[in-house]
Specification:
globular; 5 strands; alpha+beta; 2 helices; five-stranded mixed beta sheet; Trna Endonuclease, Chain: A, domain 1
Length: about 120
């Protein structure tokens, strides 16, 4: 993992923890993709995609979560639930934490249930 990606994932994890979510897993990798963070909020299992864009030349961070990326995340989440069956009866959702701008910008955009 690149240093920049890890930095923003750690910031997102800290932000979500401040919002009351509990850490479950980080960088869950499968051949089809990766889930940046898996968190728990009450009874929900939350799969979190963290995106950062230093500049908007190629679009903003939220816009980079394309339908193809969403498919990969859903497939990766299905594998997570297969590997860890104790979570399979929990309601699940996909959130996006997006950071745009200079590295000094700390305020994330948090989209809960960004897609199904």
């Amino acid at each position: 993992m690149q240093k920049t990606g890890l930095l923003w994932e750690r910031r997102a994890e800290a932000f979500l923890s401040e919002q009351g979510l509990t850490f479950v897993a980080r960088n869950f990798r499968v051949p089809r993709g990766e889930i940046d963070l898996v968190m728990q909020e009450a009874h929900h299992l939350v799969f979190v995609e963290v995106r950062y864009r230093a500049c908007s030349r190629h679009g903003n961070a939220l816009g980079s979560v394309t339908p193809a990326k969403q498919r990969k995340l859903r497939q990766s989440a299905a594998t997570f639930l297969q590997r860890y069956p104790s979570w399979k009866n929990h309601p699940c959702r996909f959130d996006v934490i997006a950071y745009d701008g200079a590295v000094t910008r700390w305020e994330p955009v948090w989209i809960r249930a960004a897609f199904e």
